[in-house]
Automatic annotation (TrEMBL):
It comes from Nocardioides anomalus. It holds the Pfam family zf-CGNR. This is CGNR zinc finger domain-containing protein. It comes from the Bacteria. InterPro entries: ABATE (IPR010852), ABATE_dom_sf (IPR023286), Znf_CGNR (IPR021005). Residues 127-169 form the Zinc finger CGNR domain.
Length: 176
């Protein structure tokens, strides 16, 4: 498994609206094999995990790298991860997360933690962030070569740039 993709999925999970099973199914639309397995219990467990995971992204955004590592380690103790080697559908051998019950929530939590732990080890603990566009509070994983990402999406980036441009225009007009 591509651990960057696991890490990016963790950000998407944190940004997902999981008020009910329909929200979880919408989040998993690209993973059809999981959609039918979703339960209310999965939603409840994932909302709890969202509250536990958000401080990791906030600590990274605030450049508190030791806190990122400590929080991820604590989460991996609370949510043990069991990786397994898989080879299927003509793909070469790769890693997957195995869970005892195979619940959707346990699988998504395991993928998130495994992806984030590998990302932090490979690229550093400062690669997680919270969108700089106000009032957005979404999170993102920065895989850019120069570690320059500040927004969760192109939409937020464009909106922030337009707002900054308008503010400059207004300041220039006020100074004239």
């Amino acid at each position: 498994m591509d651990f960057i993709r696991y890490a990016e999925r963790s950000a998407a999970l944190l940004n997902a609206g999981l008020a009910d099973v329909d929200g979880l199914r919408a989040h998993l639309a690209d993973r059809e094999w999981l959609v039918e397995q979703c339960t209310d219990r999965d939603c409840m467990l994932l909302r709890k995990f969202q509250r536990e995971l958000r401080p990791v992204f906030e600590a990274s955004a605030a450049d508190r790298t030791a806190e990122v590592v400590e929080a991820l380690n604590e989460l991996m103790v609370r949510h043990p991860i069991t990786p397994r080697i898989a080879g299927h559908d003509g793909h070469p051998l790769h890693m997957h997360v195995a869970t005892k019950s195979q619940s959707v929530a346990e699988l998504l939590v395991g993928e998130s933690l495994l992806g984030l732990a590998n990302l932090v080890c490979d690229l550093g603990p400062s690669r997680l962030g919270v969108c700089a566009a106000s009032p957005c509070t979404n999170v993102y994983v920065d895989t850019s070569p120069n570690q320059s990402r500040r927004y969760c999406s192109d939409r937020c980036s464009s909106r922030a740039n337009v707002a900054a441009y308008r503010a400059r225009q207004k300041a220039t007009a006020a100074a004239s």
